Amino acid sequence: MSQELNLILLGPPGAGKGTQAARLVQDFRLPWASTGDMLRAAVTEGSDLGLKAKGFMDSGALVPDDLIVDLIVERVAQEDCEDGFLLDGYPRTIPQADALAEALEGLDRKVTAALLVELDDEEVIRRLSGRRVCVTSGHGYHLDFDPPKHEGVCDQDGSRLVQRDDDKAEVIENRLEVYHAQTEPLVEYFESRGLLRRFDGSRSQTEVHDHIRAALATLRLEESA
Ligand code: ADP
Ligand code: ADP
Known about the structure:
Low-confidence stretches: none
CATH superfamily of the domain at 5-31 and 78-120 and 177-224: P-loop containing nucleotide triphosphate hydrolases
Domain Adenylate kinase active site lid: 131-166
Keywords: Kinase, Nucleotide-binding, Transferase
Shape: globular
Bound molecules: adenosine-5'-diphosphate
GO molecular function: AMP kinase activity; ATP binding
Order of helices and strands: EHEHHHEHEHEEEHHEH
Strand order of the largest sheet: 2-3-1-4-8
Helix content: 40-55%
Largest sheet: 5 strands, parallel
InterPro entries: Adenyl_kin_sub, Adenylat/UMP-CMP_kin, Adenylat_kinase_CS, Adenylate_kinase_lid-dom, P-loop_NTPase
Radius of gyration: 17 Å
Structural class: alpha/beta
Distance between the termini: 13 Å
Mean pLDDT: 95
CATH class of the domain at 5-31 and 78-120 and 177-224: Alpha Beta
CATH architecture of the domain at 5-31 and 78-120 and 177-224: 3-Layer(aba) Sandwich
């Protein structure tokens, strides 16, 4: 139990959660679940979930809790999550956080830490407007901050890079409002439980990564002491 890393990445859209998740899963060999990626895959497949979720996602609203909670509750109970997991984009509301806590409690486990990547609104807008993603792998780039070697092409597999529909200017503003109203209360939620760790998302990708890695190493030492 003490060595488990049951981690949550929290923060506004565009803060760098996905970018950091990709690095952390390699460091700590954790299974990674991104609810945004799961939902986008469902939309592409045209599954029942995808059909229900699409309208909310296109407008920058959250998908209703009852569509998303079971996905995650089932995911964390799977065998590969026994020694820990990294959730990216979940929870986004207090009821989602409560549902996760309850599911983990049933497994005699709990969240180890919520890693908050902080970024102000102005920078969020810059990050989201320049974000481009690989159509095949979802790997992320930024036109100014992390450009691919060849314009419009993924460095890793040569696929096309596209802009997400919800990264267009008219949707970004709504996503920010939704973040402040529905997700930001989770900062206090995790802080009051002694689980919050804050990171300055305006630093470089490598600096943010180093800071998170150092915090997790300390946390593991404390837990095993
Ligand atoms: P999130 O998952 O929080 O929405 P992403 O990881 O997709 O955020 O990052 C948003 C955009 O910002 C991407 O285009 C990414 O390349 C870029 N990015 C991520 N981290 C940094 C950073 N520390 N500095 C500059 N740009 C970054
Ligand atoms: P970002 O990290 O850039 O905010 P995501 O890829 O995590 O974006 O999420 C994209 C969209 O998917 C959200 O705007 C929302 O509509 C939906 N979504 C993702 N995760 C959740 C969640 N836990 N609860 C409700 N909606 C979600």
